[in-house]
Design a protein that fits this description.
By secondary structure, this protein is α+β, with helices and mostly antiparallel strands. The protein folds into four domains: 148 residues, Serine Threonine Protein Phosphatase 5, Tetratricopeptide repeat (Alpha Horseshoe); 255 residues, Neuraminidase (6 Propeller); 89 residues, Sandwich (Immunoglobulin-like), CATH 2.60.40.1120; 117 residues, 2-Layer Sandwich (60s Ribosomal Protein L30, Chain: A). The protein contains eleven helices and 33 strands. Strands 2, 3, 4, 5 and 6 form a five-stranded antiparallel sheet that branches. Strands 7, 8, 9, 10 and 11 form a five-stranded antiparallel sheet that branches. A four-stranded antiparallel sheet has the order 1-22-21-20, with no helix packed on it. Helix 6 runs antiparallel to helix 7. It is elongated, with a radius of gyration of 32 Å.
Length: 631
């Protein structure tokens, strides 16, 4: 909030609109004492002196104005309202800036009807040339009009404290949660030192939080404002005043390393700068980082920016999210939902109910952000609302607040998200990768590709110690899933998430087999149009995976196999299966695989994997596979 206190006081004194002296000697003594205290920035003492001045002289109008201005500055808005009202009630010529202060105090106590009246008086009577001052007043008027209407149509909102296992008698805030809602990381302020704590679900109940890691938490510096990747493996966070920092606050990343976390790594330039860079939010695919900065080139004081991770592991020059998101005021606490398209953030620039409100915006098919939508009343109020995160299923919002009845000064709460503020439906696939023969966990690469966009939504390695992975998949597309490890045949799966009701998570256990002679692998992401043999573009990722397998194992020879269901004649199906197998064969050759390592064969409808008695079964029989013919 722009500080207009000094400007207001000085202008009032210079213009002499109000009487600056009292006929009551004791009142004048206290008033003069307050002026000396103001010069040395002792606001609390000045407030006490001014209170004495108006006590001695209840008609001391200027003392009331100064007192109200100081109370507004120190956020004692109810007291400020009372003293502005007393000053104005004394009559005479009223400086319009008093109406501004009165209206601001009313906004920050939720008295929007009276605030609208007083800010309108200021706008109509103010004759000064401070454009910023007038623009903020006009913004306040818009806020009042928005708030009056918002209160008429409240959204359902019943916040629930997450309880004593999560919250403490300290300040607990900035929550982040994994996609499966099994791990919660948050900040706790222990007597001025901010550290991360983690709680995990055990039989559906949260465990008592423990410090995250001594490698991340420090005794000399503060850590906070974190963003957790959906699988819980990567933690982006803000570290301030660290020796390796480029500015006052920088963004760091740490990843799970066995049962502990790695040493935090400063992302460096160009993400970090000599300015304030904080509050990261990582996209579900790990390639886009949203954050807050006050660096030059922005639109307001603090703006939302983004940077992309390049193939070489470096981050691109940050881009401002532009006027679609940022305003001339401040935006902060971004959260990008696991759908990769819904952005939640706080702002005091867009029309709201006072202070900072929480907004949401969706990225359209062209990569443009929609106009931010206020989440509504009473989620937003005249208090400051920031730091909202939303669960992967979109059903719950989690945030921190100082609501009455908490365990400490700041607690973590959850609530059911209104339907209008929910993100795109998202599910996830979670599992482990093992060696089929030994049962040993494998460090395998897992890739999930959106077949509509051609973009990876997940590409990472399973954890060495337990073979685990978790990948989110927004509902509304089809996905190719592959898991591969050196010396093993890859695993292929296909997920169709176009239909409503397909948001239930997938739990799988993948047993990879060592490459052996005679091994057959079904490739579930090779696609053709009905009765055609031209490869569809959505097949190319699977063929690329097969190409990588052949390039990594130079002695392997394979036979590409085409299969059909029993629809149509034997002759037609035989020819179609040959043509489809050859299409894959030709593509592998164009990818640089030597012809002597490849062959192809069509089996028509002669080798079904199940009965051709339903459409679902016939779909399983229409497949492309490969057979290891030589090692």
């Amino acid at each position: 909030m722009k500080n207009t206190l000094v400007l207001l006081l000085l202008c009032v004194i210079i213009n002499g609109v109000y009487a600056q002296s009292s006929t009551v000697k004791k009142a004048q003594v206290h008033f003069d004492q307050a002026q000396l205290q103001l010069k040395s920035d002792h606001y609390d003492l000045a407030i006490a002196s001014l209170n004495e001045a108006v006590k001695q002289d209840p008609n001391f109008q200027f003392a009331y104005i100064q007192l109200a201005d100081l109370q507004r500055r120190t956020k004692a808005f109810e007291l400020a309202k009372s003293n502005y009202a007393k000053a104005i009630a004394l009559g005479g010529t009223i400086d319009p800036r008093s109406y501004y202060g009165f209206a601001e105090s009313e906004i920050y106590t939720g008295d929007y009807v009276n605030a609208r009246k007083h800010i309108s008086l200021f706008i109509s009577e103010y004759k000064g040339k401070d454009a910023d001052f007038l623009n903020r007043a006009k913004k306040y008027l818009r806020d009042c009009e928005f708030s009056i209407e918002a209160i008429k149509s409240p959204v359902k909102y019943e916040p629930q404290n997450m309880g004593p296992k999560i919250n403490s008698n300290y300040r607990d805030y900035f929550p982040s949660i994994t996609a499966d809602q099994e791990q919660l990381i948050f900040s706790r302020n222990l007597d001025g030192n901010e550290d991360f704590f983690i709680s995990k679900k055990d039989k559906g109940e949260w465990t008592i939080p423990v410090p995250l890691s001594a490698k991340i938490n420090t005794s000399n510096y503060n850590e906070g404002a974190q963003s957790l990747s959906p699988d819980g493996k990567y933690l982006f966070f803000t570290g301030c005043n660290r020796p390796d920092g480029l500015g006052r606050c920088d963004i760091y990343v740490s990843h799970q390393d066995g049962k502990d976390w790695s040493e935090p790594f400063n992302l460096g330039a160009p993400v970090n700068s000599i300015y304030w860079d904080s509050q990261p939010a990582i996209s579900p695919d790990g390639t886009t980082l949203y954050f807050v900065s006050n660096r030059p080139g922005g639109i307001g004081g603090y703006d939302l920016w983004k940077s992309h991770l390049k193939d070489d592991g470096y981050w691109t020059e940050p881009e401002n999210l532009g006027p679609e998101i940022n305003t001339a005021y401040d935006e902060n606490t971004p959260f990008i939902h696991p759908d990769g398209k819904t952005l939640y953030f706080s702002s005091d620039g867009w029309p709201g109910l006072g202070n900072k409100d929480i907004f949401m915006s969706r990225m359209d098919q062209h990569g443009k952000w929609t106009k931010p939508q206020n989440l509504g009343y009473p989620i937003n109020t005249f208090n400051e609302e920031t730091g909202l995160i939303v669960t992967t299923d979109g059903k719950k919002g989690i945030f921190s607040s100082n609501l009455n009845g908490g365990y400490g000064d700041m607690d973590i709460y959850e609530f059911n998200m209104p339907e209008t503020s929910r993100p795109q439906s998202v599910t996830y696939v979670k599992g482990i990768v093992k060696d089929k023969k030994t049962g040993a966990f494998l460090e395998a690469q897992v890739q999930v590709l959106d077949l509509k966009s051609g973009q990876n939504v997940f590409k990472d390695y399973t954890a060495r110690e337990n073979g685990e992975f978790l990948a989110v998949m927004p509902v509304g597309s089809d996905y190719a899933f592959n898991a591969s490890a050196a010396g093993y045949a890859f695993y292929s799966e296909h997920y169709e998430l176009n239909q409503a009701g397909t948001a239930a998570p997938f739990q799988i256990e993948i047993a990879l087999e060592k490459l052996v002679l005679g091994q057959q692998v079904i490739m579930k992401n090779i696609f053709f149009n009905t009765n055609e043999y031209t490869l569809l573009p959505s097949s190319l990722s699977e063929i690329e995976t097969l190409t990588n397998l052949l390039n990594s194992n130079k002695n392997i020879h394979i036979e590409i196999q085409g299969h059909t269901d029993n629809t149509g004649s034997n002759t037609t199906n035989q020819k179609l299966s040959i043509d489809r197998a050859k299409a894959v064969y030709d593509r592998l050759i164009s990818n640089g695989i030597a012809t002597e390592r490849l062959s192809y064969k069509g089996y028509g409808q002669t080798q079904p994997v199940t009965a051709n008695d339903t459409e679902e079964h016939r779909k399983l029989n229409r497949r492309t596979s490969f057979l290891v013919t030589s090692l």
